[in-house]
Each structure stands twice: as C-alpha cells, then as structure tokens.
Amino acid sequence: MKKIILLIIVNIFLSCNAQEYPLRTYGIEFPKDSYLKDTTNELSQYEGVWKATWSNKTIFITLKKIKYYKDFLDSRAYYADILIGKFKVSDNNGNILFDNTNIIDDKAKIKGTNFGKSDNKYSLFYIDRDLCGITGDIIINFIDSAKTKLQWIYSKDTNWIDTDCFYYDKPASERPDPLPYNIIFTKQ
C-alpha cells in the first residue's frame, strides 16, 4: 500500500513539472495553466531601483519579478515570470509629477512580455489608464558587464487619445510625458 501511495505522489509531482517551461521558450502554444518560469534567474538581475534624469525631470523606477497569470488568451491562459515596473517622476523643484509606486503589483502600469529571440533585450508594455489609456512599448538591456547601467528605449503609441480624453485636441507639447524615450538608467 505504501508503494502505491508513493507512486501516486511521484506521478502527481512529475505531471505538475511537465507543465513548466523555461523563460526563453519560443514557438509553441503553452497549455492552459502552464508556467513559463525564469529557471536561470535572468529577471532577478533587473530587479531593484533605477534612476535617470531627462528634460529637467528625475525618474526612479522599481523593477520587480512576479509570477503573473496571462489570461488574455482565455482558453490558453498561463503563468509567467515577468518584470513589472512602478515609477515616480519629479521635476527639478522636487514636485511629484507622476507616482504609481503604491499600486498593487497586478495593476502595475509597466509589465514585461519576453526576451527577444536573438538578443538579451527584454520587452515591456506600458499602459496608463489614468492618462487616457496612453500606451507604449519599452525595450531594456544592460550596457555594462557589472549590470548597473540599463538602456531604456520607449516608443509611445501615437493613436492613444480618444475624443473623451481631457487631452484631446491639445498639441503634443501639452500632453503628459511620464516616461523618457531613450535613456540610460543607473542602478541605485
């Protein structure tokens, strides 16, 4: 009887692990509730507080690795280790312009997607419902061997303003600009 119970437990353990895939798995459809796991801890190197300055503004962004349920595919929803970002932007006088550091992780405005197939660049997506649904893509990668300098390239989607938005019909110079476009962050 003990052997049967042991075999059942081992079988359950093996079937659970069969649903795990390394973070850099490409070209397959993940089964429902499978787990795209950061088995080599690549994302951990990005975690922490990063600082940059641009256009008389200072940004602190905190990157954190979480296990996230990607449910946008409904029948093929799966778990994945991703980076999330929360940031605080202030002007030269110390006035806080943007701050989403206190929101819960699942509601973070910056969420990771994946590493590129042929490089070590990590992709993230930005969506800010508080700013009329502004969206954009972010690519990050280390530019030094110590991994204390992070290149950041942000491409804001251009068609994000709708007619219900406060910023509709305003020139681009009067619209919010919460994130830098091309900058180097330094780990704090």
UniProtKB/TrEMBL annotation:
PROSITE patterns the record matches: PROKAR_LIPOPROTEIN
Keyword Kinase included in the entry's annotation: no
Keywords: Signal
First and last residue of the signal peptide: 1-18
TM regions (residue ranges): none
Domain DUF6705: 1-188
Pfam families from the UniProt entry: DUF6705 (PF20448)
UniProt-listed InterPro entries: DUF6705
Protein name according to UniProt: DUF6705 domain-containing protein
Lineage of producing organism: Bacteria, Pseudomonadati, Bacteroidota, Flavobacteriia, Flavobacteriales
